[in-house]
Write a structure and sequence with these properties.
globular, alpha+beta, seven-stranded antiparallel beta sheet, single chain, 175 residues, Pnp Oxidase, Chain A, 12 strands
């Protein structure tokens, strides 16, 4: 295999976290809201680091910063829902990404069988219990076992995507 000179990796004396983040921004991802409910009410946060892990058993995973103030409330209950946002829900994503505000103001939702909030008009949702948690640098990797999910007729919208620091729609990436 021949590697073109422009494809060779260079070693930089100092690793720049901003350059790393910008580089990873070239990977398009969906946007989710991880939600739960405790004695104080519904909780949730925006998360783009979500993926499937296994079908037997049904496992999914998300990553959350170790300094999150919302995730400890979710962890305490041992369960959560994953709300995959539809293409027109960028304002919902922004609302749940803010700190120190009522993230649920104006948000319509209904509970899963376990009581976790499912946001109205999302692309799809999964209801999970925490299976495992691993500390990885400045994040936790949380693995959840899926116990309930949205019915197939729910899955009619396009996803909200995040690419190169901006919300995108599938039509933005076509052609």
């Amino acid at each position: 295999m021949t590697i073109a000179p422009e494809q060779t990796m260079t070693t930089h004396p100092a690793f720049d976290p901003r350059v790393f983040r910008d580089t990873l921004g070239h990977y398009a991802s969906g946007i989710t809201i991880i939600s739960g409910i405790d004695e104080e009410g519904p909780v949730g946060f925006t998360c783009q680091s979500f993926y499937s892990v296994s079908t037997e058993p049904p496992l999914v995973s998300f990553s959350v910063m170790t300094n999150s103030t919302t995730y400890p409330r979710v962890r305490e209950t041992g369960r959560f829902a994953v709300n995959v946002l539809a293409h027109d829900q960028h304002t919902v994503s922004n609302q749940f990404a803010r700190k120190g505000t009522d993230k649920w103001a104006g948000i319509d939702w209904s509970p899963t069988q376990a009581g976790n909030p499912v946001i109205s008009n999302t692309l799809m949702w999964l209801d999970c219990e925490i299976w495992a948690e691993h500390e990885a640098g400045d994040h936790y990797i949380v693995i959840g076992r899926v116990h309930q999910m949205s019915p197939p007729e729910w899955h009619t919208a396009d996803p909200l995507l995040y690419f190169k620091g901006q919300y995108r729609h599938l039509r933005d990436l076509e052609g």
